[in-house]
Specification:
The protein contains 18 helices and eight strands. With 514 residues, it is mainly alpha-helical. Helix 2 crosses helix 3. The longest helix is centred in the C-terminal third of the chain and has 21 residues.
Amino acid sequence: MRSLPQENTQRLSNQLGKTMATSTEDIIKEIQEIYCSDSMPWVVGYSGGKDSTASLQLIWNALLQLEPEHRSKPVHVISTDTLVENPVIAAWVAGSLDMMKIEAEKQGLPIHPHRLTPDLEHRFWVNLIGKGYPAPRNRFRWCTERLKISASTRFIQELSEANNEAILVLGQRRGESATRDKVMDHYSGSTRDRLSRNSDPKLSRVWVYLPVETWSSDDVWMYIMSEPNPWGVDNQELFSIYRGATPDAECPVVVDTSTPSCGDSRFGCYVCTMVSQDKSMSAMIQNDDEKSWMQPILNFRNKYLSVNDWDVRDFQRMNGRVKLMGKENPELIHGPYLQEYRATLLEQLLITQKTVREAKVPGHDQIELISIDELDAIRRIWVEEKGELEDLVPKIYERVYEQPYPGKPMETPLLEEEDLELLKGVASELDPEAADRLYRLTRNLLAAQFQSLQTQKRSKHLDRLEEVLKANAFRTEEEALAFAKSTELDQDENEPADGEVELIPVVAVETEEA
């Protein structure tokens, strides 16, 4: 898809050209006054979208107009890459951060870009495929804190504690949605005219500044399309990305994932199941042949990531609890993904990654949908935490790529595949109706025994055996449901308001939906 011709910039400005609620000149002057008024470092949240681009562009130009001796404190530009972002947007943001670093040094500006990523244990595939957390949904939105908030909060918190205070700049605007306006109301009533305290207790030393708060979407587009980008990226390309991400290729959408947009399209994580479809990726593929290489990614997302997944989830929770849902016809709330489905997810994800790489699209021929570090983490969780002695990760990788697994070596129990097959056969003979559960119980007990031989800590060994027994307490789902119903009758006086009764007590309280 081609960018808008440069000569159309003025025509675009005329089309969008309402009088801004606050002029560009006034905002730049305000930025300079706030910047020079104290020694607090700044942190600018940058998503790569139009609003954060406009905010950063205003700050950049404001600093550029100051005398060098007045550019006295750092401005940190942070962008959190969840590692499951729309690949086009992730590439755009990464390229922008690289340009910022180069141009800030050239222009003598104290602007420092940072690409933040979640810690390994917080990453999407480690939790979904490794631990078996079901795809995020309204009642179990486990992804946002882990993928987006934790890394940025830690950065801001450490900076503010090291400097006593800090200023956080956000590209939020009023009128985008009622929800966002409520959030922005927390940023009002401050003794400092244009700064307000952050509502997050973890960031109590952080002031919030919203430079484009009064602007409309049209104001933002008019500014970034009529003013040259000071770090050298092409804002017309950004406009083309927005335009191409809607079915009619006309109405812009918003990259900032907390912001609603025209046509309900949105950028963000392609794995997101908080929405039924990834409309922006679909539209990109539809509107631009050069982005058709993303079709395998979209196919994977649509086929394998769904909230309608109870048939591929265990009827017990990770810690062995069973919980009821509903009053008239209660049923068990299912827990983590079963081993077979987790293995399917991993294999299909690797196949998708291989397919996209083989397309050899410039700039994306080495795309990494899942890293080796994440594969190692998943392998450890499956073998050590879940007791899955089959050690499937290397086998799946070698089956897909037809080459040895490149991850870290790991000590695995001395059981051959033939031993496990024999164990499955014995389980089938002893209890045909619940052979899988009996096999899993026996295998996991063996895994716990192997681990005890390595650690030599008997107390932990007994705890681990207890966990295994609790996690495999029922032969069938029917038995678990009958037990849950009978136990509910004995616990009516302690029943939670939502009708979900916790059974099988455990030592540690489990807070996750899985």
